[in-house]
């Protein structure tokens, strides 16, 4: 498998400040023209998980999930979620993960993950993500499929 990132642009430009603005806008639900449908809303005394989806007519489906953890520092949670090697130990859907590229100037990362969900065949994902820290110790992570990433499966 090959991803030709250097042929089409810099890794640091894959997940941009515009993506962060888009994420914050959707978190704040400013866009009244879009209709979001509740998918799940679960809570207990340790956490609250909410997921919803938006099905625009002329665009791909969008999903938004928010998890609020009680009695957990933002830094601990950030380190837990962003450690993809450790994720293989606790996330039973992750079969394999490897880092393909990392831009140290802004932290944008490209990774390849194979996930296996019950009753489905394993699926491979090539994703780019970037983490931002807000002034109030709020962390934002934006994940997307690199638009330029051409993937070829090579069988030996």
TrEMBL record:
Coiled coil: none
GO-annotated cellular components: cytoplasm
Domain START: 32-139
An example molecular function term from Gene Ontology annotations: lipid binding
InterPro entries attached to this UniProt entry: START-like_dom_sf (IPR023393), START_lipid-bd_dom (IPR002913), START_lipid_transfer (IPR051213)
Protein name per its UniProtKB record: START domain-containing protein
SUPFAM superfamilies, A to Z: Bet v1-like (SSF55961)
């Amino acid at each position: 498998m090959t991803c030709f990132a250097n042929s089409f642009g810099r890794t640091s430009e894959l997940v941009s400040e515009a993506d962060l603005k888009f994420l914050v806008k959707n978190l704040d639900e400013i866009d009244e023209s879009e209709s979001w449908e509740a998918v799940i809303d679960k809570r207990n005394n340790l956490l609250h998980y909410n997921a919803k989806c938006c099905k625009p007519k002329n665009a791909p489906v969008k999903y938004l999930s928010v998890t609020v953890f009680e009695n957990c520092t933002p830094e601990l949670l950030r380190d837990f979620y962003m450690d993809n090697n450790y994720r293989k130990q606790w996330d039973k859907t992750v079969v394999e993960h490897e880092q393909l590229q990392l831009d140290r100037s802004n932290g944008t990362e490209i990774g390849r993950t194979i996930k296996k969900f019950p009753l489905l065949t394993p699926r491979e994902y090539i994703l780019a993500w970037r983490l931002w820290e807000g002034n109030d110790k709020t962390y934002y992570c934006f994940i997307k499929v690199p638009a330029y990433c051409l993937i070829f499966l090579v069988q030996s």
